[in-house]
Structures are given as C-alpha cells and as structure tokens.
Automatic annotation (TrEMBL), chains A, B:
Gene3D superfamilies assigned to the protein according to its UniProt record, in alphabetical order: 1.20.1530.20
InterPro entries noted in UniProt: Cation/H_exchanger_TM, Na+/solute_symporter_sf
Gene source species: Metapseudomonas resinovorans (Pseudomonas resinovorans)
Membrane-topology descriptor: Multi-pass membrane protein
Family: Belongs to the monovalent cation:proton antiporter 2 (CPA2) transporter (TC 2.A.37) family.
Name of protein: Cation:proton antiporter
One family name in Pfam for this protein: Na_H_Exchanger
Lineage: superkingdom: Bacteria
Transmembrane regions: 6-24, 31-49, 61-80, 87-107, 119-138, 150-172, 192-213, 220-237, 298-320, 332-351, 357-377, 425-446, 466-484, 514-538, 544-564
Length: 587, 587
C-alpha cells in the first residue's frame, strides 16, 4: 500500500521535527533551525539508515510549503504599510540587494564557480530572513523599538524586490544571458503584471471573500481561499512567472479583505504543517561531505553576509537620515539569510542551472548566520558606542553635517503638501496607464483567438484587426480619460507653481493656460504612440485607424460624463477596500 | 516540473469544490454532497476532458483526509460521554448494526454478488453519518431536543462498533473466511489493544501535550499533534490494524487532554482541506455508466437503508424505554449512510476483495439518503401521530405496559447505588487484567528479540524463557494486586448482600468471610491459568515456574504497600486527566 509508506514518511518527519524543535526551543534557538536539523538527521546522508521512502512526494509537499509561506508573507504585507515605510526602507533595501548580489557574484567567481552558480549565490545572499528576525526581536523584546520598525520596513521592500529577483533569475536561466534591455523589459512586464493583478484582484477578491464569509462556514472560506490561491498560482505559472510570485500576490490581494484575520487563523495551521515539511526537506538535502568539502567557501560567504549586510543596510539607513546608532542596529539586525535564500536555491535546482553544492552551502550559511543574529542585535549598541569613541573628530562632524543637510532639504509645510499631491497624482496616472497598457497587450496576446471568432462575421483581416484595436481602445477609454484629467490637474498645479506673475507679468494667466493644456495633450499623444508600438501586431491600416480615432473621440465626447462616473465608481470601490483593510492592520 | 501538475490538480479541486459547495449551500444542501458532485464534474468519467493529472497523489492525500476525519471524530469522542449515553444508545446501535449487516448481505446475495461484496455491502449500510446528521439537526434547529441527544449517543456507540467492523473486515478479507472463533479472537484482541492503548495513551499523551503547550507556540503544538497522530497510526498499522482505528484512538486519547480546544482549532483547517480532497476523490470514482447499470440495486438498497434503519434504531430506542414518538424520530434521523461507508468501501478496494461497482453504488445510496435526511426528520412527528391513530387499541396498550414494566425493573434507591458500585469495580478489574494480558502477550511477541539480547549472559533457552516470563510477572504485579484487591472488595460486597442473617443464621459472619476470601483467590487462579495459556510460547519448565511463582509471592509480600502505592499513583494520574478533560467537554 503506497499510502502507508507516505504516512510513515510523514510520521517520521513530524515526530523527529517535534522532538528536535522542542529541544531547540529549550535552548532558545529558532524552531526553523530545528526543522533543518531534523531533516538532516532523517536524511539519506546520515547513518544509521534511510528513513524516508518516497522523497518525491515529500518534495512535492515541500513545494506546497513554499506556496503557503509566501502566501502568508503576502497576507502580512499591505500596500498601506509599503507606502508608509518611506525612503529609509527603499534606500537600505536597494543598496543591500545590489551590494550583496555583487559580493556574492564576486565570491563565486573567486572560487571559480560557474557564472550561473555565482549569480544565484548573489541572489541567495541578497535577502534577509523575516521569520528569523521577527523571532529574534520578539525574544529580545525589542519588537517595538524604532530600529525594529525600520527593519520591518526594509523586509517589506526586500520581499517585493526579491519577487523581482526571482522573476529575473527565471528569465535569465531560461534565456541563458543577461542583457540590460531584457532586464528592463522583464522588470517592466513584471511591474505591469503586478499592478494589473493587484487592481483587478483588490476589486474582485475581497468582495468574493465577503460573500463566502456570509455563510459563516470556516470550511467553505478555507476551500475558497485555497482555490483562489492555487488557481492564481496556476495562472501566474501559465504566464511564465514563478508560483512563489503568484502566492505572494494573491496573499497581498487577500490582505486587503475584511476577512483577513479569519483567513490568517485558518491558513496558519496549514502553513505550519507544510512549511515544517519544507524546512525538513531542506535538511534532507544536506550532505556532511559537501559541507566539509566547501568549508572554506562557507566561512567566506558567512563573513560576507554578516559584514556586507551590516555595511550596506547600515549605510542605507544612514543615507536615508538615521543616526549612527540606529543605522548600525538596522544593519546588524538584517545580517542573515533565510527562507528566501532557500527558495532561490531551490529555483536554481528546479531550473537545472546551478550545481548541487550550492543548496547545502546556502543552508549552512543560513544556519550559522541565524545562530549569530540575536548576538549581533545585542552587540549593536556597545559596538556603536565604541565606534563613536574611536571615530576621528572631523569625520564625526562630517556625519553630523550630513544629517543637518538632509533635514534642511526635506520639503516642509506647503511644499511638503504639494509634493505629496504630485506624488499621489503621478501614482494614479501610472495605475491608469498600466491598466490601458495591459488591455492593449492582452488584446494583442489574444488577437489570434479573437480574429478566429470574428472571422465568422467579418472576412477581411484588416477589419478584424480594426475591430479588436477599436474594442481595446473602447475598453481603455475610462482609464485614458481619467489619466488625461489627472495629468491636466497636475499641469495646472505645475503651471500655478512655475509661472508666477513676477516672471511672466501680465501674460501669467495665458501662459498658465497654455501650459495646462499643452502638457496633458502632449503626454496623451505620447501614450497613444506607445500603445501603437505595443500593439503593433494588431494595428489596422491607417485609414481605419483614423476612423477608429474619430469614433473614439465621438464616443468620448458623447459619454464623457458617463465614462468619468464609471471610472470614479471603480476608484471608489478600490479605495473603500483599501481603507477598510487599513482599519484592520492595527498590528 | 512535477509540482506544477500537482498544484494544478489542487487548484482545480479547490476551485470547483468551492464553487459547487457555494451553490449547494445556497440551496441548503450539505457541503459534503457538493464536494462529491465537484469530484464527479472534474472526474475522468465526465466530459469535456480529464482535469486531474496525477490521480495517485490525490488519492494519497485523500487517505490523509480519512485520517484527519477519524482523528477529529476521536477528538469529539469522550469516554465520559460514552459512559453517559447508557443503555438506549448501546441497544439501538447494536440492533441497527446487526440488522443492517444482515439486510445488506441478503440484498447482495439476492443480486447474485460475490460473498465478499455482499459482506462489505452489509458493513457499508451499518453505520449512519455523523456529519450529515449534525448538519441536518442544526439546520432544523433541533440539536438540543431529547431525541437529538439520543441520536448523538447512538452515533458514538456506532463509531466504536464501526471501528470493530473495520478490524473484523480486514481480518476476514486477509484470511478469506468467517469463523466464530476467529471473530471472537479478533474482537477480544481488538478490545485488549484499545484498552491498553487508551490507558497508556491517557497516562502519557496529555502530559506531553501540556508540556509542549507551555511553550505557547501553535506551530510546535501542531507539529507534536501531527507527529503523535501519524506515529500512532503507523504503530497500529504495524500491529496489522487499520490506520483509521489508529487515528480514531489517538484522537480519543487527545480528547482527554487539557489542550483539546486548542488542538481542535489548529487541526480543523487541516482536516477541512484534506477531507475536501477525500470527498472530491470519492466523486472522481463515480462512473455514470455504473450508476445506470446498477440503478435497480441502488433503489432497493436506498429503500433498505431508510426502512431498515428506521425500524432497527426505532425499535432499539423503544426497547430501551423511550416513547413511540421519540423512538420514531431517532430511527428516522439515523436513516442515511455517509463517511464511514466510504471508508469501508475504500477498504474493500484497498484490500482488493470487492468489485469495482460497490463504491459508486455506496456513494449513490449515500447521496440519495443524505438528501432525504432533513425531510425524514421533519416527517417523523406527523408520521408518529398517524401511526398512533392507526394502531389498534390492544397493541397500543401492550406497548404502554412494556414501558411501565421496564420502569418497574430498573434498580432504584440503594440497589441502584450498589449496581453502580459493582459496575465500577468490574470495570476497574477488567482494565487491570487487560494491562496484565497485554504485558504477557507483548513479552511473548518480543520473546525472540529479548532472548537474543539475553543469550549474551544466559545460555540456556529455558533460563531465558524463565527470565522473560518472570519479568512479565514482575511488571504485572501492581496490576495483579490491584485486580485482586478490587475483586476482594467486590466479593465482600456480594457476601454482605447475598449472605443475610435470616438465611445463614449464626454462621453468617463465617460464611461471609469464606466467600470474601475464596472468590478472589479462585478468580486469581483462573487469571493465572489464562496467562499461562496466552504465554504458552514463553512458558519455562515447571520447576522454574514454581520458583518464579515463589519469588513473585515473596516480592509481593515484601513490597505490598509500595506496589499498591505505585498503582494508586497511576490510577490517580489517570483519573485526574479524565476529570480535567470532563470539565472541558461542556459542548
């Protein structure tokens, strides 16, 4: 009976994992490490005998563990939080990731590893471990201090950038090359996909969940959540992105639902079960022989992680305007690698582009840096005091000036309000344009299928194209009009600010009006050209295009108010969902 | 990538299950039926195309669903509840199961099916569906009425007897024959195993769970619970019982833990996920062609289930002393088959003793009877009024007399207290003896391994045997002494009651004393003979046996008080656990 072997595997995994984690907990070490050690104990590389029969099924379940881990990360993520963490988090995370990828790549090259191994090593080192940090900070009872809040901000940005790294690595592994143009195209497409998925998802999913929640059945809600989660992962895979991305995105979408707390409560046991299997499966892969063979690289990489992250995150925090002590604490708190590294290492194996030793090396480095984390956090304060004493006076003064200068250039009072408004308008324009671009890309993608349907009524391919293109334009109209109106508001604002009476004298009003009219029209023209480039494959002949444009203009003129109303209703629905969920995120 | 096919399967299962169950919920039908219909839709027998790629993995996960279902059934079970439900539940459940197995067997034989098919059909029809009944009664808001409480009692006894049926069927399927002696041996061994597992389990598991719960980590508690659950299932499988039995037993053991509520909250989402897969997997097996081909048997079996259960359960409830109306409501409430039937049908397939058509037939009958359940419950009251009117006067009077007679023979006042005491003592003796029997059977089972260890020090096989047998006796001493003391108390009680001064005159005291001494000694002698028979394979020579017996007597005399203290400490620990958990079972 196949099932008995499977139950036996599960029994061994859970029993050993349970015992080891209890031991680890007693000695105040993270549970995650316990799982990995448990996997190592029952793994094929350690005596006395092979305890796992069906490694293939366990690995499949471990994949589910990754999905649930990323899904829960998404649930804990929130757009509102992302907007709040501000510059510090962005700068520190970006600096950290770029620097660590570079350091990792250089280390790999130094040891003479394959290009792909070095690249993946860089990616493995790039992202710190949320679980480990949360665990360490709550053990040390420092969760509510300012530097801890900064660390959480950096982690959120890291998650987003990490998703991007995974998408990029998948692309590079498939194509086998790194080209700047390709990178930009990948990042662009990824951003587009994420914006569209988030907008559509936040419009639909929380409403569906609220409907199911009305039945007051935990079971139905869970099945719906799992269906949406796996279904979305599948969609993302069909679009040739990683499942991990899908799980994170659908989690972030559900984070905006009113049922968030209930979903978290229901999904947590499921995640705990499968993530335990995931971490044990990591331990299964550890071969002590590999660890001995690669002892030297492991030491070097561990040092690189600790020092590299300390410097890059600390520097990032400092550049963004924090004092030296806080910056050092942020840097030392982030000095480890964890679950994201395992996911990236697993990606390399799945895509068959990395060597076998990379995974165990990553696990070993993660284990050592995880063990170091609490000591590093505790050592940050004494170290900052020592550093401050040892620093030469002039250097300290320069650092002080930097902080003062930074504060002086920050927009204050009215200009801060204005800057906020401009940022908000630009964001709205971007979201609307992203939706338009998605509509056109989508029509181009489905043009073949659509043309086949249309061929029953319309014979000429040109007319078919015209109909498809026209349909896409019609669908885009509400978003185009909204973008145009936002841009107009923005240019009026800019005209008001830029063209002052003491510069333009009595022409002030006229110049302002011209600027306020010309900028949005020009940008709209630019957008249309971009759209045409994007939808080159379904572009009809010029005459038809002019005809469509005229038609669209006519429709816009006739339905202007109605289109605006449609758009604003969507926008209100979106904002309501976001605000409702924001009330819930009091965590 | 294998994992993507797997995720796709899960996505399809959860999405379709989610949609269908929402539809079913809207039309007030049980969610379980929705799952089965969802499985039917995505199954291989329905167009448009095969939606599941890896049926094998799904079936393995469905096995997990069975384990979690039975585990949760065990969690909801409680020994205290079992003792409370009393005679009604036992009589009704026993009558129902015997009658339904017979009816099922006869129907199978009538249609000319194989003996094994007929036997499994009987077992499939024997047990009603807890989930369906709970759902229907709470929908009808009748959960707290008296007849509903009786139904729940019957369901608890059914679960226990059902576990026995599964063990018996497995035995019969392997040996291929039904012999009375074998049946008794199987039931005896099963009872023994259950008692020993419960006593040891309740002594150890709640303590372990309380220890883990101190760490206040849901994750660790869940992993421990899962480890114990799978580990115990594995142990049970090694002893050649069904995994289902193991899951139920370990659930019943954990039901006595203080962490019960927490465990239920953690395990519910996991159960919901896997039981959804289980029910969908059932739907996958439905082949419409089989349903059409077996339409006639399905109709006959459905009628047999409804009428048979109505009569057997109703009669059982009536015999146990309930009025006609309540009895009819109990009978009509239990008129369906459900998850237990699927488990038994699946057992037949796994053991490869039943034909392929049996499973879909069982599912079809279950679906129809499930749909009928709420209507039957609602129809019970009008029907009982009509029956009462239509019944001839004399018959009604006979029924009335039966009730009066039953009430008159029930022990009242002091004799009721005495009956309760005797019952309690007998139960304690039985538990102690079961443990002794288990120790001897265990030593006989492991004699080979033990002898190998001993052979390093002791050469003679006879001496080895003597050591093993003596060790078993030593281990049993506390339980033997406890059983002896309970028996002594019982015989004193009986002597006090049976030998009254008006019968024995001035010899009263002496006769009482003789009876109080002789009965326990005789029963102890009987026990020893039984033990020797059970441990025939490890029995040493007579001289050694006498030596051991003398030694044991010496040890008993020397350590009498200490042995009693050891035993009473264990008993107190057990009782405390049971009482603590009883406070929690306020559901």
């Amino acid at each position: 009976m196949h099932a008995i072997a499977f139950i036996q595997d599960l029994a061994v995994i859970m029993l050993v994992a349970g015992m080891v984690t209890i031991l680890f907990h007693r000695f105040k070490q993270p549970v995650v490490l316990g799982y990995i050690v448990a996997g190592f104990i029952i793994g094929p590389h350690t005596p006395p005998f092979e305890l796992i029969h069906d490694e293939e099924t366990i690995k499949t379940l471990a994949e589910l563990g990754v999905i649930f881990l990323m899904f829960c990360l998404g649930l804990e993520f929130s757009l509102a939080k992302l907007f709040k963490v501000g510059a510090t988090a962005f700068i520190a995370a970006f600096l950290e990731i770029v620097l660590m990828i570079w350091i990792g790549y250089e280390i790999g090259s130094y040891f003479g590893w394959k290009t792909m191994d070095s690249l993946f090593l860089g990616a493995i080192l790039a992202i710190s471990s949320t679980t480990i940090i949360v665990k360490a900070l709550s053990d040390l009872k420092m969760k509510n201090e300012r530097f801890a809040q900064l660390i959480f901000g950096v982690l959120i940005v890291e998650d987003i950038l990490g998703i991007g790294i995974i998408a990029l690595l998948s692309g590079i592994a498939v194509s086998g090359s790194v080209e700047t143009g390709e990178v930009f195209a990948t990042v662009g497409k990824l951003t587009l996909f994420m914006i569209v998925a988030l907008v559509i998802g936040i419009l639909l999913v929380p409403r569906l969940l609220a409907y199911v929640a009305k039945f007051e059945s935990n079971e139905m809600l869970l099945v719906t959540v799992l269906g949406l989660c796996f279904g979305f992962c599948l969609l993302v895979v069909k679009l040739e992105y990683s499942m991990v991305l899908g799980a994170f995105l659908i989690g972030a979408i559900m984070a905006e639902s009113r049922q968030l707390m209930q979903i978290e409560r229901l999904i947590e046991p499921v995640r705990d079960m499968f993530s335990a299997i995931f971490f044990v499966a990591i331990g299964l892969l550890i071969d002590p022989k590999v660890l001995v063979e690669y002892a030297w690289p492991i030491v070097v990489i561990t040092l690189a992680v600790v020092l590299g992250k300390m410097v890059s995150c600390g520097l990032g925090a400092f550049i963004a305007g924090n004092d030296g002590r806080t910056s050092l604490r942020v840097g030392m708190g982030l000095s480890q690698i964890g679950e994201f590294s395992f996911i990236i290492a697993a990606l390399g194996i799945t895509l068959q582009v990395t060597s076998n030793f990379l995974y165990p090396v990553a696990v070993a480095v993660s284990a050592i840096t995880t063990l170091l984390t609490p000591y590093l956090i505790r050592a940050a304060d004494p170290l900052s005091i020592k550093l401050a004493k040892a620093m030469p006076r002039p250097l300290a003064r320069v650092f002080g000036y930097y902080g003062d200068w930074l504060r002086s250039i920050q927009p204050q009072g009215q200009s801060a309000v204005l800057a906020g408004m401009i940022r908000k308008i630009l964001l709205q324009v971007m979201v609307n344009l992203a939706l338009v671009v998605a509509i056109f890309l989508g029509s181009a993608y489905f043009a073949g299928t659509l043309a086949e349907y249309l061929s029953e009524w319309v014979a000429s391919p040109n007319l078919q194209k015209a109909l498809i293109w026209g349909g896409a334009l019609l669908l885009s109209l509400p978003f185009l009009i909204a973008a145009y109106r936002k841009l107009k508001a923005l240019s009026m604002l800019l005209a008001e600010m830029g063209v002052t009476p003491d510069k333009a004298g009595r022409h002030t009003e006229r110049v302002r009006k011209v600027i306020a009219e010309v900028i949005p029209l020009l940008s709209l023209l630019g957008i249309m050209l971009l759209l045409m480039a994007l939808s080159a494959s379904i572009l009809p002949t010029l005459e038809l295009l002019v005809l469509i444009a005229l038609l669209a203009a006519g429709v816009s003129a006739l339905l202007w108010r109605w289109l605006i109303r449609v758009h604003s209703r969507m926008q209100i629905a979106l904002m309501e969902t976001l605000e409702q969920s924001q009330d819930q995120h009091h965590r």
